[in-house]
């Protein structure tokens, strides 16, 4: 069974590739440039040598037909490639690759993958369900996969370039996920496969992808790193920062289970985790955030029941992440 993983050099994707290879799958990854292939081919040297791991270059995921070649003969697809950064000036810089990349891979799959393709998993995000406006102190709202983050889309529509970077990223994820469900609905009589979407909150854990220095970290691990090693926020501010998070091992497992579990088809199978207090508590402030007020909960029932995912202990994620930083000499 061969699985296509788009954006194979990303933080989450490399863990997905690793999990797939360890579970006997063959993997075809896509990366944007030859220069992004070397590290991966080294990391999965044995599998590359035996033909179990190969890479295709897809230089522009927004180009029509970008994935036409990459999808050929594939049994399943994990589409992870999408920008996650806070640097977009015009919102289209982040929304276009998210939406066009997602619709493009579905379209290529429909036309060229072949009838053996059974399942496509799209890495959406907790930000596509998490409504910032719903987080006022009085809210007792429980959010799950049926919730949508509409307010970020509205903010981007109304403010354009002046919208916050967070809203631009969130909108890209809401719009991309919605476009995926719309595509499947519109073409359901023409496709042999079904769709599953994952909605993880912040994903933390050790990194396998190529990162030369802390300032080049992917956005989520950068947030974890900065909380510990830089002093942008006071311990009190950090202790009261709200964010759900989950472990990259679990997110990778979630992707693979979402490809395997028949009942996951057509579902939004969240890999959401409950918000916990003190997530960002810097070292040296044990117990900070104990007075934290839960305002919003992300419900991970589907991930646990439909996928059978067992989430790792938060302390294990934190420990593994810090050990990884230490091993790289990134500790100050
Ligand atoms: P990374 O930044 O590590 O990886 C992103 C991947 O997408 C890379 O392969 C990157 O390629 C590719 N990519 C980014 N922008 C473009 C573009 N314009 N055109 C083509 N490819 C592009 O991030 P993550 O691994 O964290 O993110 C992977 C997916 O998971 C994304 O869809 C993200 O939204 C989602 N996600 C992440 C969460 C997290 O906390 N990390 C939480 C929830 C969802 P290149 O290296 O060439 O830029």
From TrEMBL:
The keyword Oxidoreductase applies. The keyword Mitochondrion does not apply. It comes from Phellinidium pouzarii. SUPFAM superfamilies: NAD(P)-binding Rossmann-fold domains. This is NAD-dependent epimerase/dehydratase domain-containing protein. InterPro entries: Epimerase_deHydtase, NAD(P)-bd_dom_sf, NAD(P)_dehydrat-like. It comes from the Eukaryota. Keywords: Oxidoreductase.
């Amino acid at each position: 069974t061969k699985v296509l993983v788009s954006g194979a050099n990303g933080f989450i994707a490399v863990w997905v590739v690793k999990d797939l290879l360890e579970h006997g799958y063959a993997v075809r990854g896509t990366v944007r440039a030859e220069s992004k292939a070397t590290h991966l081919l080294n990391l999965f040297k044995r599998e590359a040598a035996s033909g179990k791991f190969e890479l295709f270059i897809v230089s522009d995921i927004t180009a029509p037909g970008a994935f036409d070649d990459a999808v050929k003969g594939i049994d399943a697809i994990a589409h992870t490639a999408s920008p996650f950064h806070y640097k977009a000036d015009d919102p289209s810089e982040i929304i276009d690759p998210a939406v066009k990349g997602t619709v493009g891979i579905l379209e290529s799959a429909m036309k060229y993958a072949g009838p053996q393709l059974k399942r496509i998993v799209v890495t959406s995000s907790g930000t596509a369900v998490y409504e910032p406006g719903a987080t006022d102190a009085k809210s007792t709202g429980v959010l799950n996969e049926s919730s949508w983050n509409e307010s970020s889309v509205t903010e981007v529509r109304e403010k354009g370039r002046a919208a916050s970077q967070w809203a631009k990223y969130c909108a890209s994820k809401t719009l991309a996920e919605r476009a995926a469900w719309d595509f499947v609905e519109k073409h359901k009589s023409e496709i042999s496969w079904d769709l599953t979407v994952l909605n993880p909150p912040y994903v933390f854990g050790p990194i396998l992808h190529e990162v030369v220095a802390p300032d080049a970290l992917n956005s989520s691990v950068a947030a974890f790193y900065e909380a510990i090693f830089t002093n942008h926020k006071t311990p009190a501010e950090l202790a009261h920062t709200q964010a759900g998070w989950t472990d990259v091992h679990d997110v990778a497992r979630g992707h693979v289970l979402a490809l395997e579990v028949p009942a996951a088809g057509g579902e939004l199978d969240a890999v959401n985790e409950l918000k916990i207090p003190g997530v960002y508590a810097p070292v040296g402030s044990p117990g900070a955030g104990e007075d934290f007020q839960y305002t919003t909960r992300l419900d991970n029932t589907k991930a646990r029941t439909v996928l059978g995912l067992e989430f790792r202990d938060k302390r294990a994620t934190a420990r593994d992440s810090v050990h990884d930083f230490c091993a790289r000499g990134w500790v100050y």
